[in-house]
Structure formats: C-alpha cells, structure tokens
Design a protein that fits this description.
The protein is α+β, with helices and mostly antiparallel strands. The protein contains four helices and eight strands.
C-alpha cells in the first residue's frame, strides 16, 4: 500500500509551504527519515523526510508550487507499485478524517470517572439519658455491697446528700432485714375442740 508524504506543519501560524527542491526522483530507493525535499515558508526553511522505507513512487507537487499544510507531496511504496489515483486519494483522505474524528470524540456509553468517595456524615453523639445525666447515687464501696448482697438500691432510703445511698444506709437496711429474719414467727393459737355433753343413761 502506497504511503503518502504530506506537507508538515511548519509553525503555529504557518498554513502553507512552497516546494523548494526535490532531493529524490521517482523510482529512487529511500530510507525512513531520509530527506526527500526542501520546503520554504515565510518563517522557516526545512527538509521533509521519508515517512517509511521504500521506493519513491511519484511526486505530486512540482518545485516552486505552494500548497497548504496536509497536502500530499509524494507517495512511497514497493517497487512497481502504482500510486493511488486522485479519486482513491480523496477517498482515503476522507476515511482518515472520519477515523481521526472518531478517535477524538468521547466514546458513547463510556463509564464516567467515579466520583471520589464522600466521607460518611458525622453521627451526632447520642443524647445522654436522664439517668446517665444524673449524678451517681452510690460510691464504689456502696455499689460493691449492693452487688454482694443482691440488693436493689431503689428499696433503700438514702440519707446522704441529694438522697444518695451511703454505706450506713446499706448497713442499716441489712440490719433491719437480719432482725426481721431472726424474729420468731408467732405461734398459731390453738382452739380447744368443743366437748360433747354426756349422754343420759338408759332407764
């Protein structure tokens, strides 16, 4: 397949160039990056090199002619190969432009870049319940005594500050409970059974 050699972009504001001199003639063997021709512009003079190794099949732009950037200047291919006709070249150019546009256009259905994970919203601290907000009603010593004896603090009347249960309150409660346990149970009252009257003797 013949490979085109095109007028390069000679500068940001340069849109065309003039073929100054051909360094190779059709039929010459060329190597990749070997200079093929000299190009002259308003700002720079440069050499255009071969885009591939092969045979210079044809020269499309003669010396002294000015053409725009991207214009085909020559074709390189295998020896004996025919360069494409003007219609074939136009078709290839149109296909190349369509392929280039398709590559630049964003692919349909492409998955968008994932958004960075958002940090979880801060969970507000749990509102303290009235019981937890209230001051402690017992000291560690009292708590240990309650646990040892299996007592319910709600059954003990506190005499300390703000109604707190103190060690003395627990001891007094235990003493009262012990006294109640040791008190003798009242003996049941015995009721004498009624005595039947004597039966009269038979006559």
């Amino acid at each position: 397949m013949a490979i085109p050699v095109k007028m390069p972009q000679l500068g940001e504001s340069v849109t065309e160039g003039t073929v100054g001199k051909w360094l190779k003639a059709p039929g010459d063997q060329v190597e990749k990056y070997e200079p093929l021709l000299e190009v002259v512009s308003d700002k720079v003079d440069t050499e255009v090199t071969a885009t591939d190794s092969g045979t210079l099949l044809s020269v499309e732009v003669p010396e002294g002619e000015t053409v725009g950037v991207g214009t085909v200047l020559a074709y390189i291919g295998e020896a004996g190969e025919q360069p494409p006709t003007a219609e074939e070249a136009a078709t290839e150019e149109a296909v190349a432009k369509v392929q280039e546009a398709a590559e630049k256009a964003p692919q349909l259905g492409a998955t968008p870049a994932e958004e960075p994970a958002r940090p979880p919203a801060e969970v507000p601290a749990a509102v303290a319940s009235p019981e937890s907000a209230a001051p402690a009603r017992v000291t560690p010593v009292v708590a240990r005594m309650l646990a040892e004896h299996g007592l319910d603090i709600n059954q003990i009347e506190g005499t300390g500050r703000d109604g707190r249960v103190t060690k003395k309150d627990v001891e007094a409660y235990l003493e009262r409970r012990r006294e109640q346990a040791e008190a003798p149970a009242p003996s049941p009252v015995s009721v004498a059974a009624p005595v039947a009257p004597p039966k009269p003797a038979p006559p």
